[in-house]
Amino acid sequence: MGSTVHVIVVGGSLRLLDMAREFVEALESRWSRFRATSEVSRLNDAGGRSLRVSPETLGLVQRALEGARVTGGLYDPTVLGDVIRAGYDRSFGRLEPDAGDGSSHLRSGYEAIDVDGSESTVTMPVGVGFDPGGIGKGYAADLLAAQLLSQGAVGACANVGGDLRVAGVAPDGPSWPISLDHPLDPTRAEVVFVRDGAVATSTRTRRAWGRAGDRRHHLIDPASGRPVWNGVASTTVVAAEAWQAEVMAKATFVAGIAEGLHLLAATGTDGLLIDDEGSVYPSAGFERFAGTAPPPDDEAGRGPLAAAG
C-alpha cells in the first residue's frame, strides 16, 4: 500500500496502537506489489496456476471484482500493466519526479479471474496483473477499524493513505468530522460528518510525475490504458465501507463530471466531484453529510480528520 496510516482509538488500552501497527504491516506483507514474497506478487507470477491465499487476500480480490462489476469496468483492478507503462514501476517514494515510460507485458482482464471461496484460492489469467492499489487501502481501513472494536475499543478511526473508516463512539459529539481538502485551493476545505461509515478521495494532484508537458498520475482509464485527463481534479465519495468509497471515487473520476454524478445516483452513493477550474459538483444527497465544523476541543486540541487520496 505504501501509505501513511493514522489511527484514533476511543477507549481500550494503549496496546491497541501496537496491535494496529502490526495488523497493517501484516496486510502490507500480503498485498504490496513491491514485495516479491507478497500474496499479490505470487498471484501475478503464478502464470494461470491456482494459489491458496489468506482470508484477507481472498476478501480483497472478491471486493475488487465486485467493484469492477458494479461500475461496469470503470474501476478495474487489473490495470497494473498500464500503471507500470505510465512510469509507476516502483514505490512512489522512490519514483523519479520526471519519470517517463515504464515497461510491462501485463494486460487487463478482471473478467477472467477465478475465485473459489470454499477453497480460498485465486487463479489469475496468464499475463493479467492484479493491483490492490487504492482498494487495498480502503479494505485495510475497514479491517483495521473492525479489529480495533473487536479488541476493546468503543470507537475507532482508521485512515490508511486517505481512505478513512470510522466506527463506534466519536471523541467529540455524535459524529466524526472529516476534512476534505480542495485539490486546487487550500482555503476551500469542506467538512463532512459521518457516524459510522467511510470517505475516500481520488485526485490527480497527488502521486503525479513526469516531465513538463507530459505529466502522468496513477488514475488510469481502463478504456485507453492511459492516465485520465477529462477535466476532473478530484472525486470524494461517502459510503458504508472504505473499499466501496474507494471504488466509487476512482470510478467517478474516470467517468467524468456528468457520468460520475449519474453513477453515484445509480448506485445510491453520495459524493462530490471537483473540476479543473475548481468548481464543485455535489451529488443530490451529499448535503446530509456536510456542515460547519464544530470548534476544536481546547483541552484535546482536536480538529477535523483529513481525507485525501
Describe what you observe in this structure.
Helix content is 28%, strand content 23%. A hairpin with a 4-residue loop joins strand 15 (270-275) and strand 16. By secondary structure, the chain is of the alpha+beta class. The protein is globular, with a radius of gyration of 19 Å. Strands 1-5-6-9-14-15-16 form a 7-stranded antiparallel β-sheet. The chain has a 3-stranded antiparallel β-sheet with strand order 2-4-3, with helices on one face.
Summarize the structure.
By secondary structure, the protein is an alpha+beta fold. The protein has helices spanning 15-31, 39-45, 55-70, 80-85, 133-150, 242-255, 257-266; strands at 5-10, 50-52, 114-116, 121-123, 155-160, 163-168, 176-180, 190-194, 197-203, 208-209, 216-217, 220-221, 226-227, 232-239, 270-275, 280-282, 305-307. α6 runs antiparallel to α7 (257-266).
Largest sheet: 7 strands, antiparallel
- Rounded to an integer in angstroms, the radius of gyration calculated over CA atoms is 19 Å
Distance between the termini: 12 Å
Strand and helix order: EHHEHHEEHEEEEEEEEEEHHEEE
Q: Give helix % range.
A: 25-40%
Query: What global shape is seen?
Result: globular
User: Which residues form runs of ≥5 with pLDDT under 50?
Assistant: 292-306
Q: Count helical runs.
A: 7
Instruction: Report mean pLDDT, rounded to a whole number.
Output: 90
Percentage of residues in DSSP E strands: 15-25%
Class based on secondary structure composition and strand pairing: alpha+beta
The overall strand count is: 17
Going across the major beta sheet, what is the strand order? Answer: 1-5-6-9-14-15-16
